[in-house]
Amino acid sequence: MAYMHKNSKGESYYLHGRMVTLRGGLKLKIFYFARKPKGKDEIEAIPDGYKVVENKRTGLPMLKKAK
C-alpha cells in the first residue's frame, strides 16, 4: 500500500517514485504524489532524509529534503 498524505483541504494523495533517464544518460529517482495509487510505482514510506510539504496555494503535497 502506498504512503498516503491528506492535505489541508482533506484530499488524499499517494506517494510514487520511478527511475528516469535524463538526456546526458544520468539515471535519477523521482518522487511524485497522485490522487490514486498506481500499482507498480507505489512507495510505502517517505524516503530517509525527506519530508512532506504542501503548496500553500494549491494544497499539492511534495517531498523536500529535510535539514
Key words describing this protein structure:
67 residues; mainly beta; three-stranded antiparallel beta sheet; two-stranded antiparallel sheet; 5 strands; 46% strand; globular
Write the layout of secondary structure elements.
Blueprint: E1 4-6, E2 12-21, E3 27-34, E4 50-54, E5 61-65
Antiparallel strand pairs: 1-2, 2-3, 4-5
What does this structure look like?
This protein is mainly β. It has one domain. Helices cover 0% and strands 46% of the residues. It has no helices and 5 strands. It has a 3-stranded antiparallel sheet, with no helix packed on it. Strands 4-5 form a two-stranded antiparallel sheet. The protein is globular and about 40 Å long. The mean pLDDT is 94.
What's the gist of this structure?
The protein has 67 residues and is mainly beta.
Summarize model confidence as the mean pLDDT: 94
Uncertain regions spanning at least 5 consecutive residues: none
Helix fraction, binned, reads: under 10%
Largest sheet: 3 strands, antiparallel
| Radius of gyration of CA atoms, rounded to a whole number | 13 Å
Q: What's the arrangement of strands in the largest beta sheet?
A: 1-2-3
| Number of distinct beta strands | 5
Oligomer: single chain
Beta-strand percentage range: over 45%
Shape from CA axes? globular
Tally of individual domains: 1
Number of helices: 0
* SSE order, one letter for each helix or strand: EEEEE
Helix/strand-derived class? mainly beta
Amino-to-carboxy terminus distance: 27 Å
